[in-house]
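Checked the freezer inventory, then went back to the computational side. Two predictions to log before the end of the day. The first one is the construct we discussed on Monday; recording sequence and tokens without edits.
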Amino acid sequence: MDEVRIIEIKQSVYASNDEEAKKLRGELKDKGVFLLNLMSSPGAGKTTTLTRTIEKLKDEIRIGVMEADIDSDVDAKKIKQTGVKSIQLHTGGMCHLDAGMTRQGLDELVDNDVELAILENVGNLVCPAEFDTGASKNAMILSVPEGDDKPLKYPLMFSICDVVLINKTDVMPYFDFDMEKCKEYIAMRNPNAKIIPICAKTGEGIDEWANWLRDEVKKWGAN
């Protein structure tokens, strides 16, 4: 009896997306548009952090935001209140965005008035990490209530991010969260990741984060 033929579909799908992402990244570079892919679990504080970030940068950098969710337009409405351009992306039940889906959003968002495009990805620590969106840089938020062991449980997410924001530091006294252990675990997965403890509610650490992002946008536009 002949052996069963096995076709590696998953590998080819990722390869196709990687090629699309590379192409998109090149096009954005030519246009001088910096794309930040922001990821986290649901409830980690992406939208609040993003609001704080926009407050710091909107007077010097032209910003546009894509809010990705399975449904609703709640976050897009919140971001629009900051005065920057905001659109909502519905994923049709999918738990991530890939390069092609990101391109569709950028076609609606990016024009001559946008220097920094921010994609607030679907809340999930698994699927979004598997797909290159074509972003210039990847950032993620880990909140204190989630626990300091998440880098051990979700290695891919931490390994692909240029920056890890550890949010909700104001509640550390009420949770069994070891900041130094968390930093150690992140370094195990990604020794090059920049780690910035923040509290989006109080504003702690937001200046350091905004300064990093400002510098990256400038470097992207200058090269």
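The second is the one RB wanted added to the comparison set:
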Amino acid sequence: MAKYAAAIDQGTTSTRFMVFDHSGKVVSVDQKEHEQIFPKPGWVEHDALEIWQRTQEVVKAGLDKVAIGDIAAVGITNQRETAVVWDRGTGKPVYNAIVWQDTRTDKIVDQLSADGGQDRFRTKVGLPLATYFSGPKVKWILDNVDGARAKAENGELAFGNIDAWLIWLLTGGTDGGVHVTDVTNASRTMLMNLETLDWDDEILSTMTIPRSMLPAIRASSETYGTAKGVLAGVPVAGDLGDQQAALFGQTCFAVGEAKNTYGTGNFLLLNTGTKPVQSKNGLLTTLAYKMGSADATYCLEGSIAITGALVQWLRDNLGMIEKSSDIEVLAKTVDDNGGAYFVPAFSGLYAPYWKSSARGVIAGLTRYVNKGHIARAALEATAWQTREIVDAMNADSGVALTSLKVDGGMVFNDTLMQFQSDVLGVPVVRPTVAETTSLGAAYAAGLAVGFWAQVEDLRENWGKDKEWTPSMDKAAVDKEYALWKKAVTRTFDWAE
């Protein structure tokens, strides 16, 4: 009798392997970072083979504490929109993975927008034309890598977000690997029709992407195949993009339930039920999950490119702190931001603006401002960007948010969480298992093989660890928010 469900969580900066028991408690975990490659300004790449190497390493280390025979199934969750194109015969990528933050496809996006505007495909795919999504990245690889287009048209190349790459390798790679993705990942390519849950031939034709490259689209919870290698014999049975996995791990199964993940970027998702809701306020309409043969569930999403990545930038590029957790210590050396506002539009602005030509600014600087103020402004930037998303979500859904479930690495920063509650004016709640992304993927896999009987059973596993309630004067919040909005306008149209 299996005792555990496992998850491989392949994120933007690291890969993690986690094993959970039936009550959702962590039994084993291992994690390793991988290299961030920046060939040119605005370009962000990963070595997909290094990611596979790190995946195997963390799985091996994570299996130190548990027997492989005790694992019922493994689920995959992944950084979304990061595109890998590989040779089916050799198993080697034809180019580095192009990361979701990368802005090199701006000219492709402009060309596609010239006929029909930024919302040209939005009614079909729920997304604006933006550099964020993986479809234009595939087109860039086919247009710019020698011989890639001819090989693709010959059926020799495969494309996937990182989930498809890992599932293919886990199930054998060149030796019978299964080439699949799930609805949540497919919905982030700009190539999947929200209604049919299939690839859209008209958009494929417009972007000149051969359909033969694309993985089969499957449910988020079903058995795709059996692992070989490090997890030999374990069913690979769950697949969710990282933000959808966090929504699932937070047990947001009812319409109107929402979560916000604080990671490299921030992603706020609101369950909208079994019909897609088109946004009028700059949010994305996307898939939340699909459990086996049940109807798909949709959500609205507010995506913010740079939040935790701003802390990393202060650490790695400026050397202001030694480790990410030092940001809170530095921010607490001052009482406020000293009049400084930091808008980290390093990859353009995502929701609700969708301006790929925006670039980061620090506004309101005077001689008074010191590094403590900059640290505080960096943390506040995360909270203000989230406030903008919540405003848009309230307008789209017609339902005001009453509390916010939070997860991810930054939720252990009490200063940030308190400020977040202050600027939203609602309680902010952290669960006992903050790494809900991995938990959601493990849930999806476990449900597929009967380790958990039904979705509603998972609610019993959710527990509250800490709650923050608003304590800041509303007039002070409104004044600060107006200055934040003013700073945001200074980022617009910076890149030519």
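For RB: The chain has a mean pLDDT of 94. Residues 37 and 43 are 8 Å apart (CA to CA). Let me know if you want it refolded.
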